Each structure stands twice: as structure tokens, then as C-alpha cells.
Amino acid sequence: MKKKTWIAWCAAGLLLAAVLGADIWKVNQKVNALSVSVQEMQQTQQAQGEQILQQSELMALQAEAAAVKDRDSVIPVLDPGTDGWLVTQYGNPGGQQEMCYTITTENGLVIVDGGFSYEVPRLRKIIAEYGNSVEAWILTHPHPDHITAFMDIYEDPQGIIIHHIYTAEQAPQELMEEKAPWDDFSALERFRALNIPNLEYLHKGDQLDLLGLKMEVLSAYDTEMEPLTKDLMNDGSLMFRISGKEDSMLFCADVGTSLTKTLVKEYGETLKSDYLQMGHHGFGGLGKKFYRLVAPRAAFFDAPDWLVNGEDDRSTKKNEELMRAMGCTIFFYYTAPNQILLK
């Protein structure tokens, strides 16, 4: 091939390569631009989807908060007429665990524990319905989720008269702190500082009349309990049963597993009761043998939904499943206030 011809062919090849290269570069640029556009669109759609989801979740939370707030102020009918005694469980379905019950007749009111401060406005309204008179206020033990509302009202009664205040004695604070340094003693210290003149201590075996109901104390702190548990404040709770002519209800307060064996051995089949307030909100609490001996028709869990269905600890859920397997109706804060009629 002549030199001029070879040079011409090379020049033509370079020109073709340049043209093709430019076209390929343009195509690549278009593909890259399209890819970026697709990614941006996908990111936008994802962000919009997340925003819609967040808005949906926010609306659901706002609706739930409104429902919870409304339920915190609900006061059901408390007058059972001449049929018996109404037992009502209160509680915040989206909030904290606590213990707050009323026992009512046509003209008589008993309060059990009372819960946190957010129960105070509702309790004041309930007490006002009974002429600002509380026949008896039963305090199972001095943890904040049980007696804060009582202390708030006692310190600022606004005309409220409490005729009887019952509770269990407590172990020496030094011993409780030694055995359970993790515990909260703030409510106990505040409670003792009140120096309540009409405070009456109840002990195992005590019986009294409560609006015509028979009240019997099955367990309360005593020195014999000290070797059995480290959790003296909870396990030293006032466990009691109230009985009408036909029905009964057992309140376990915060008594836990450490006392299961002792209680089962001491009471056996006499634990049988129609209704049951679960030990320690259903969280841990008493053991299967105890609950099977009680064999109630309905069980009250003093627990919001997160404690019943939460993933951190499954003991509450297991206790719920146990009670359902026994044929129990279950009450917890999702449907509070909850009521049963004792006859």
C-alpha cells in the first residue's frame, strides 16, 4: 500500500472513531442522566411514602392520646343499687402500670390504693359523688404507683373526709434497702412523714366489715417473711379477699413468686375466689400453682398494653395466656374502667 493511501485510511479511521466515541459518550450521558432521574424519583417516592407513613402514625398516636386522655376522666356508673357491690378498675391504657380500684354501694365508697397523681382529678370527682366521704382507703404498700394519688389528696383534702385508712406494716427501711438497693423508697418516706392519726395496720388473719363485705387478710409483712424474699416491700403487700353472699374477689397487690410456695401450702384450695387481681400487675407475680388454686372467673391485670404485649419481658403475656387457658375473662387497661358486680 502506498504511503499516502495508508495515511488517508488512518485519518478516516480516526474520524470514524471520534464520531462513534462522541455518539457513545452522548448515549452514556443520557443513560446516566436517566439513571439519576430514576434514582431521584425513587428517593422522592420513598421520602413521600415515609412522610405519609409518619403522618399516619402521628395521626394514630394523636387519636390514641386523645382516647387515653378521655378515658382518664371517665367515671362509670358506681351505684349497683340493691344488687351488691361494684368493683371498678381504673388505669391509663397508654401510660404506666399502677393500681387503682373503687368498691361502691349506693351510698358507700372504698378506695384501694389510688395510683399515680393523674388519677387525682377523677378520684376527687368520684369522692364528691359520695358527699366528699370515703368510708375506707386501703393502701396495699407504699410504692409510688400505688399511693401517690392518696398522698396528694391527703395533703390537700379540700373537704374530703377519710374515715378509715388501712395498710400493712413495713419492714425496717434499713433492711429493705440492704436486701433491695434497687428499690424506690421515696413514697415510703413521704408516707411516713404524713403522721396519719387514724392509720390502722392490718395483719395476716385480720377480718373486718367493709361496706357489708367480709374482708380477710391473707398475707402482710411480718418478720417470718424476711428469710423468704429480698423484695420485702412488694411481697409485704396487703393481700386480702372481699366476700359477699355469693361472690368473692382476691386482691394480691404486688406479692410475687417468692411467697407462692408458702401461700399454696398455707391456704391450698381455700384460695378459690370468683375474681382475682393479679399479683404485681401480672408482671412476674405469683406462680401457676397459686393461680390454678384461685381458679377465678375473671382476672384483672393492672397493666397498659405495652406491659402485656411488650417484647422486653414475656412473663405478663404468659400469665395472660395461663389465665385464658383456665377459661378466665381478662381485664387490663386497654378497656379500663372495668367493672364486676359482687353479689
Give structural attributes.
2 domains, single chain, Metallo-beta-lactamase, Chain A, disordered N terminus, alpha/beta, seven-stranded mixed sheet, 20% strand, globular, 343 residues
Can you walk through the features of this model?
- By secondary structure, the chain is of the alpha/beta class.
- The chain folds into two domains: 72 residues; 268 residues, Ribonuclease Z/Hydroxyacylglutathione hydrolase-like (Metallo-beta-lactamase, Chain A, 4-Layer Sandwich).
- 41% of the residues lie in helices and 20% in strands.
- It contains ten helices and 14 strands.
- α3 packs parallel to α5.
- The N terminus is likely disordered.
User: Uncertain spans, ≥5 residues at pLDDT below 50?
Assistant: 1-39, 45-53
Distance between the termini: 120 Å
Relative strand content: 15-25%
**How are the strands of the biggest sheet laid out side by side?**
6-5-4-3-2-1-14
If classified by CATH, what would the architecture of the largest domain be?
4-Layer Sandwich
Rg estimate, integer Å: 33 Å
Biggest β-sheet, characterized?
A: 7 strands, mixed
The residue fraction in helices comes out at 40-55%
Put simply, the count of helices is: 10
Topology:
Blueprint (H helix, E strand, L loop, with lengths): L2 H70 L12 E5 L10 E5 L4 E5 L6 H10 L3 E7 L4 H12 L5 E8 L4 H7 L6 H8 L5 E4 L4 E4 L2 E7 L12 H4 L3 E5 L4 E4 L8 H8 L7 E3 L10 H7 L3 E3 L4 H5 L5 H11 L3 E3 L6 E5 L1
Parallel strand pairs: 3-4, 4-5, 5-6, 10-11, 11-12, 12-13
Antiparallel strand pairs: 1-2, 1-14, 2-3, 7-8, 8-9, 9-10
Helix pairs in contact: 3-5
